[in-house]
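Help! Submission page says 'invalid entity' but I think these are all valid:
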Amino acid sequence: MQTSRARLFKEYKEVQREKGADPDIQLVCDDSNIFKWTALIKGPSETPFEGGVFQLAFAIPEQYPLQPPQVRFLTKIFHPNVHFKTGEICLDILKNAWSPAWTLQSVCRAIIALMAHPEPDSPLNCDSGNLLRSGDVRGYQSMARMYTRLAAMPKKG
Amino acid sequence: MEGEQGRSMSESHEQADSESFPSSSSSSRPCPICLSPTPHLQESYLDRCFHKFCYKCIVQWTKVVASKHSEAPSSLLCPFCKTENFSIIHGYDGSKFERHYVGQIFSDSVFFTEAHWYRLRCYYVEPGILGDAFDVKRFWKLRKYLESNRWLYSWLKREIQALMQEEDVDVVVHHMLGTIESSLRRYDQRKLKAPEERQMEFKMLLLDAARPFLTGRTDRFVDEAELFLASGLNLEAYDDVYMRGLGWENPGIDSQIDSLEESLKEPTDDSTVALQSKLFDFDEDLDGAQKPILRVCQSEPLELPRLAMSASFLEEKRKSYYPHYERDYCHFWAPIRVFRIAFVPFPLAKNHATTQAKPQRTGVTKYQVNIL
């Protein structure tokens, strides 16, 4: 408990110090609870998620960093490895490939990389996975872009 | 499209690292697990990739990894670069180091805690350094061994686990426990023997009992067991005194103790805990058969309420920390050594020198303070 708190505090300071160093990621700690964080990440360019801003919720276990943080999308996203309803993310480093050397910031980077490179063979969103597995890249991209417009972009007008 | 984001996970990870700690040389780089600078004595390295971690951190991580496998793994992937490593290099002081093989040491890592390490390391220091910390002679002279020591079992278990590096030592522990208790109880019936004789007899018995299991370390073990019995302390307090005696830093074996210590230190600014030596002097006149009593200096009678305050404060602490404590004292950590504060209500303490100081004006129960 103490070690996780100390480590999160270090990360918090690092985030404060490096503010703006990575324009794609904005990590914010909950005002009252250092075990709850949210992040805003920009959809990577040249993907259907470009231009969207996605919100992630981090729930950090007491055994952190020995246990990985639980991360999910709060913003709806059409992606093979993200559960469409719950926002749960299927990413090896958040499960069995976790290493305590990862930080919340680097987890965000990994998620951005996952957005650019979906793994349709271990889908949480079968519709999205099936589109890609059947080779319908165009169908996948248009669906993903539509949901990005609907959910991840500020409404115009 | 592939260019910017197309890095593999590990690459983006490397990048994360170099961004977080720019221009830091490898020696000042914080431990990747706790992100804090590694204390000098805690430094440890993996044998292949030479990435540096706090010993505590990497051991903890190894345990987590081991707990995920049904069989103890013989290697550990570096959390940083995923290189396969087989041992942890630890305690490098310029000329020598310790090497802990992942498979050997951590096969039973679930039980082998930092406290076990510390005990094992105690066997590598010269004996007798702690001669002053615990009064072994008094233990035998005053027949302290007649009091049963409720912590003996846990102490024995940890000690034997540390020495044998095995988890299941129950049989050995019970054997030793039986030997110790029966030999101590036997003395009860032969009160006429000299303390030295009893001590010898106890040692011989325990030596015989322990030799088959501990071989080369038996003699030292018997001395350590005697020291522990003589201390009359519980495990945490004993560890604390022991490490102070050796000049080691407490590696945070029990954070509860630290917090206890902290909470006891807190009010020192208003001198509530006025247990500084100037308030007391040792009652040298007392016969050895009696417990030495710390008493309030006669020349400073005004300090009495402060003592009373400190005692009631300590009792409050005791209640909150040891609600089920049967024995009426608590351990008090002073900067120099551990005091055992006995809480003897005023009327019972009548015979002792403490009561002669001044009549009580405060309504607070007066306490006799026994130094350990």
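Support: the input was valid. A stray whitespace character was the problem, and the output above is from the cleaned input. The radius of gyration of chain A is 16 Å.
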